[in-house]
Amino acid sequence: MSLGEADMAFARELFADIPDLNTRRMFGGMGLYSGQTIFAVMLSDGRLMLKAPKGPFADHIAALGSTEWTYSRKNGKPSAMPYRTLPDAYLDDPAEACALARQALAALR
């Protein structure tokens, strides 16, 4: 499954206030960048995920109801990626979504 143009346009509009916003297709989804720093991905199923390495920001976004991106390896063992879902309440509020994205960017620097 691959993202449609409408999904990609939605993500670009949601994060339009992020400085130097650019996107790149990847693995059927899309990476969202501020300059050269990836701060979010949109998976091929349309889920938006903010980059959240372990630490205060990951704890904060978890408390907001986000879930960690996990998958099963070929050997069946679970593995996690340093991304967490954008909480549903933020999907309808570009100002709040961008505020959370700025926190993600700060945590990455």
Describe the structure.
The longest helix has 15 residues, at 94-108. The protein is of the alpha+beta class. 30% of the residues lie in helices and 32% in strands. Strand 2 and strand 3 form a beta hairpin. The radius of gyration is 13 Å and the shape is globular. Strands 1-2-3-4-6-5 form a six-stranded antiparallel sheet. It has a single domain, classed as YgaC/TfoX-N like chaperone (Yope Regulator, Chain: A), CATH 3.30.1460.
SSE layout and pairings?
Layout: H1 5-14, E1 21-26, E2 29-34, E3 37-42, E4 48-51, H2 56-63, E5 68-72, E6 78-85, H3 94-108
Antiparallel strand pairs: 1-2, 2-3, 3-4, 4-6, 5-6
Q: How do you describe this structure in short?
A:
The protein is α+β, with helices and mostly antiparallel strands.
The CATH homologous superfamily: YgaC/TfoX-N like chaperone
Quick check: average pLDDT?
92
State the CATH class. Answer: Alpha Beta
Strand tally is 6
Find the structural class using helix and strand composition: alpha+beta
What share of the residues does DSSP label as strand, in percent?
Answer: 25-35%
Please, how many domains?
1
How many H/I helical runs? 3
Low-confidence stretches: none
